[in-house]
Amino acid sequence: MTPAEHSPLIRKLSAFVALSEVELAVLARLHRRRRTFVAGRDIVHQGQSEQTAYILSTGWVCSYKIQADGTRQIVDFQVPGDFLGLRSVLLRTSDHSFEPVVDIEAAEVLTKDLLDAFAETPRLATAILWAASRDEAMVVEHLVGIGRRDADARMAHFLLELGSRLLLVGLGSKAGFECPLTQYHLADALGLSAVHVNRVLRQLRETGLVTFREGHVTFHDLDRLVDLAEFDPAYLDHSGPLLN
Amino acid sequence: MTPAEHSPLIRKLSAFVALSEVELAVLARLHRRRRTFVAGRDIVHQGQSEQTAYILSTGWVCSYKIQADGTRQIVDFQVPGDFLGLRSVLLRTSDHSFEPVVDIEAAEVLTKDLLDAFAETPRLATAILWAASRDEAMVVEHLVGIGRRDADARMAHFLLELGSRLLLVGLGSKAGFECPLTQYHLADALGLSAVHVNRVLRQLRETGLVTFREGHVTFHDLDRLVDLAEFDPAYLDHSGPLLN
DNA sequence: CGCCACTTTGAACCGGCTCAATTAAGGTGG
DNA sequence: CCACCTTAATTGAGCCGGTTCAAAGTGGCG
């Protein structure tokens, strides 16, 4: 079993940069403190400033903010290979909450271990920060979607983005992927009501573009879907981290 | 004239961390290459990957993405003291465009100079990265606003945030600030139509909360405005950069 | 003086919301 | 194995916030 199969993070980074033996070893070391969390119970609460980050290895998490009136906005989802709370470790700036969508497995990364790893292999630091900046680009794209795309395009774009991300870590294929999200998750992420999410999904299904049912997303017509969403994966690829 | 009056960036950072003489000198050095840009002509185009960042000293800029259908979403505004394209320098990830809202003055910062400065005074690196993470928190808050706040609250929140930011660099006061944005800018930033922006502004004015007229924002009733917007400045303050 | 960019207002429309009810799909205790 | 409960998905009906289209007003500037 190659390291890439061990850790989705290693797999993701490897897709963009060739990691040396040393770097792989350092990465593996970061995976030592394994933790599990149950679905629905927050890992970090808004405002609470944590000293630890996590590398998600299995399951999905969402990061969100709750408003005073109780409405919730999901800012991003984390899938295997993604960091949780990386920024809050590096800059003590945690200002949203993390909720596991399903039971998850994650590696706890202490600030010290991370900084040590960065000191030991600066290329790894660059690669990880690159991944973080990619996450940020997704947040920006998300903002654009909510601000300027109608519900259908928004949903299409969202599903395509998720598909791309999962493909990178070996979950799912061009034909589709397993997706544990409820329609409430989709609603809170896309700035829609759950009811309308349901109608949008129905329409996408009936027009033969994509089906989301029983935890599985199936792409029926990628071309038309990309077209509807005006999906341009440039913001996900952007040339990989430049090393040295 | 103190350095703080020279540069809004120095002023902003000084509000959160005491800068040493050396750090002030290094910062001053970063301000050497002065440039001007005229309103309306993009500084960096979407996709184009620039090697330089800028520190904005006077005027306003907006960063935005254009979609295929021509609609535009403004992701953020930069005001004096803010960096332009910091991320694209550090990580070669420019994926949006920058347009000066008015004629601006900015200092060009070459990648090399920035990295040298970071090497010379690591505390400065931390402080600047902290400012960058603050920008990011603003993008997240912006996302929440578009996704889950109605037009009135969205506008109120936006104006309050701008007020806070400007206060920090000595532009404007608790009573209001100069604002060169058109209602089209507001519309593209808030995900609304220009027509509706106009109506929202009228209502805020008529209910005695805030006036936006002839390039000037005047807060009439901060308490009620904060209340309407559910404005919690925590995401702007978050404890300052931790140094050493 | 006349143009141009921006603001303002009205009227009609519609995308997405709310409220409400029904169905489907697990789990759980008995 | 069934009765029950809970959570998620589904669908209908009516409403409303915000949009589009259209037109008029305002102010700065060459």
Task: Give the arrangement of secondary structure elements.
Two copies of one chain form a homodimer.
Chain A: H1 3-6, H2 8-14, H3 21-30, E1 33-37, E2 52-58, E3 61-66, E4 72-78, E5 83-84, H4 86-91, E6 97-100, E7 104-110, H5 111-120, H6 122-148, H7 151-168, E8 176-178, H8 183-190, H9 194-206, E9 210-213, E10 216-219, H10 222-229, H11 234-237
Antiparallel strand pairs in A: 1-7, 2-5, 2-7, 3-4, 3-6, 8-10, 9-10
Helix pairs in contact in A: 5-6, 7-9, 7-10, 8-9
The first copy, chain A, binds a DNA duplex (30 and 30 nucleotides) through α9.
| Widest sheet: strand ordering of chain A | 1-7-2-5
Order of helices and strands of chain A: HHHEEEEEHEEHHHEHHEEHH
Q: Could you say what the CATH topology of the largest domain in chain A is called? A: Jelly Rolls
Low-pLDDT stretches of chain A: none
Overall CATH architecture of the largest domain in chain A: Sandwich
Per CATH, the class of the largest domain in chain A reads: Mainly Beta
Entry keywords:
homodimer, 244 residues, Jelly Rolls, 2 domains, four-stranded antiparallel beta sheet, globular, DNA-binding
Structure in a nutshell:
The structure is a homodimer of 244-residue chains. Chain A is α+β, with helices and mostly antiparallel strands. The first copy, chain A, has helices at residues 3-6, 8-14, 21-30, 86-91, 111-120, 122-148, 151-168, 183-190, 194-206, 222-229, 234-237, and strands at residues 33-37, 52-58, 61-66, 72-78, 83-84, 97-100, 104-110, 176-178, 210-213, 216-219.
